[in-house]
Amino acid sequence: MDPILIALVSGLLGLVTAGFMAVYVLKQDEGSKKIREISEAIKEGAEAFLGREYRILAIFVVVVTIILGLVPALGWLVAFAFVFGAISSGLAGYVGMQIAIRANRRTAAAAEKSLNHGLRVSFRGGAVMGMCVVSIGIIGLSVLYFLFNARPDFLFIIPGYGFGASSVAIFARVGGGIYTKAADTGADIVGKVEKGIPEDDPRNAAVIADFVGDNVGDVAGMGADLFESYVDSIIATMALATIAVMSPHLSRGLVPDLATAWWIPMIVAAGGIIASIAGIFMVRVGVKTEMKGLLNALRRGTFAAAILVAIFSFLGILWLKADIGIFWAILAGLVGGVLIGESTNFYTSYVYKPTLKVAESSQTGGATLIISGFANGLMSVMPPVILVVVAILVAYKFADIYGVAIAGIGMLSTLGIQDATDAYGPVADNAGGIVQMAGLPEVIRERTDALDSLGNTTAATGKGFAIGAAGLTSLALLLSYTQAVGINVADVSLLDPLVIAGIFLGAMLPAIFCAMALNAVGKTSFSIVNEVRRQFKEIAGLTEGKEGVKPEYGRCVAICTTASLKQMLLPGLMTIISPVIVGLVLGPVALAGFLIGAIASGLILAIAFANAGGSWDNAKKWVETGAFGGKGSDSHKAAVIGDTVGDPMKDTAGPALNIMIKLMSIIALVLAPVLAGTAGLL
Question: What is the pLDDT of residue 460?
Answer without folding.
Answer: 66
